[in-house]
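Suppose you are handed a protein chain with no further information: no name, no annotation, nothing but its sequence. What can you learn? This example shows the usual starting point.
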Amino acid sequence: MRIPIVFSFNDKYTVPAGVCITSLLKNARDGVVFDIHILHAGNRLSSHSKNKISQLEKHFDNCTIHYINVYDAFKNEYEVRNVSIESYYRLLIPDLLKHYSIVLYSDVDIIYNSDISGLLEINMNKVSIAGVQEYPNKCTKMASAYIKSLNLEPGEYVNAGILLFNNDKINIDGVFRKKLPQLLGKKLLYQDQDILNILFKGQIKFLSASYNYNLNSIMQDIHIAKPHVFHYTLNKPWSKPKLFGDAWWDCYKESIFYDEAEYFSFYKQNYENFELLVNIGSQLKKYGIYKLYYFIKKVQCTITNLLHRQSYKNLRR
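A reasonable first move is to predict its three-dimensional structure. Written in structure tokens, the prediction is:
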């Protein structure tokens, strides 16, 4: 069984991408081969980075790795929340990989815990994409207001970290290619994720949360002991302590990308004063000073709300 899968990243994410792909290949069942396609801009992914990733082919016999240069595609698109233009490259999948009926897309801030080949057995006949709901059970007022401003419903909004593309349906319908240019250039808060939700409204199949498990999943009261996928949204485990971060570091240590000095430097920098900070936090809470935290959170929420409103105005232009 051969599975086409797409990643897109730049030099900054070479090691995280390598660790992500390592976890994918390590957990694949016998007989599954991944045809890995890496979308990149020629000036943003160096030969050195490509060579490092390509070393995986020497360590695993269940993959082929191909690089597709998208040149300056989306170079002027809106960037926000430290999400780079590489995120937009997934919008090219129906065109660049149209020779595949179904294609799997994956972010690189992900760790695979088990075989995911079962995803390719899902019936996609009547849908254009498949992914995991962002808000299956509950949604904050601000997030709900923003999603509704896009003429979408929170319960029907998909997280784009793991996606299945039904290229056959997308290209036959032609709506995607026709309407995509109308949304590019809009300053949408969640960029291409918003675009995908808008364009494929009513054409999305929702997968089990096990295929895109993150902190938000727990906040949604979804409890899965061993999900197929850990998705590290917001802060990344290689830069800051993170929920489920141990899974990333365990895979990193066993990968060809492991650097002992980097590993111990991370723990020294992030945990050197850990107990002291916990004790300070406990004392602040005890004496009520921790209310300052809630004030700061309120300010952050206000700023986020303003961003949501601005994104709504940009969409309506």
